[in-house]
Amino acid sequence: MIPCDLFVDIDDARFHCRIDGEAGAPALVLCNGLGTDLGMWDPQIAALANTFRVVRYDSRGHGTSSVTPGPYSIERLGRDVVGLFDALRIERAHFCGLSMGGITGMWLGIHFPQRLQRLVLANTAARIGSADTWNTRIEKVRGGGVPAISLAVVERWFTPAFLAGNAATIADMLQMMERTPAEGYIACCAAIRDMDLRDGVAAITAPTLVIAGTHDIATPVADGRFLADRIAGAQFNELDAAHISNIEAGPAFTHALLAFLNA
Fold first, then answer.
1. CA angle 148-151-157, nearest 5°?
2. Which one-letter DSSP state was computed for residue 25?
3. Are the beta carbons of 11 and 83 closer than 8 angstroms?
């Protein structure tokens, strides 16, 4: 099926979406990480679209979605997803988010359990970094744009071995990050800075899979195990990858995702 690109208006913003798969198939929504866009999910689409109606979108402030005035909050990012469900007439869906997208998924699981079927939280945490760390990053981007930090961030996304052997992929990810509007990036940094869901995640009732990367510096394995230990019945899968595990360990990530969603 040919992918369908469209723009959806939700509250004060317009969101770029792409839909793959058959219209009558179960819905699966994919949510990108900070500094990426919906293209980060390309390695998974061919396999997922055989079974699901795959909906991916550029998060607020990212890709070609609207850059509304910041700072944002995780609640704002979560309500964007609820608005997307409503606009596309999706009553319930599977949801998979990586990093910032995983935080959005946690918020949905806590506040809108009735809209979720199964939940996948990849390379994410209920609390990421310190306020000082995020404020430093915000100031760097405010002073020099996203390119001021892009190389350092992308080098943390992948293991040294992957960086050395996949120059074209790394170049694509650098370009993706540097296309991210500075104001949108800053506004989302503030949302992550101000977020702490450690006391809330135990309320998640959707069947949940937590995916962690053995070599992930940004959201270490311990952060994934924290989530899996506190979400009743959650499954845990550790992949031989760093932060963007759906790219570095693409086949293993896709296999784990399909096995869980089709269970």
1. 130
2. S
3. yes
Of 55, 52, 58, the C-alpha closest to 18 is: 55
Contact 207, 233 (CB under 8 A): yes
Predicted TM-score (pTM) of the model is 0.97
Q: What gap in Å lies between CA 258 and CA 106, rounded to an integer?
A: 20
Q: What angle do CA 244, 105, 24 make, to 5 degrees?
A: 95
Cis peptide before 160 (omega within 30 of 0): no
Q: How far apart are CA 111 and CA 129, in angstroms?
A: 23
Tens of pLDDT, residues 190-234: 999 999 999 999 999 999 999 999 999 999 999 999 999 999 999
Q: How far apart are the first and last CA of the chain?
A: 24
Mapping DSSP to helix (H, G, I), strand (E, B) and coil, where does residue 50 land? Answer: coil
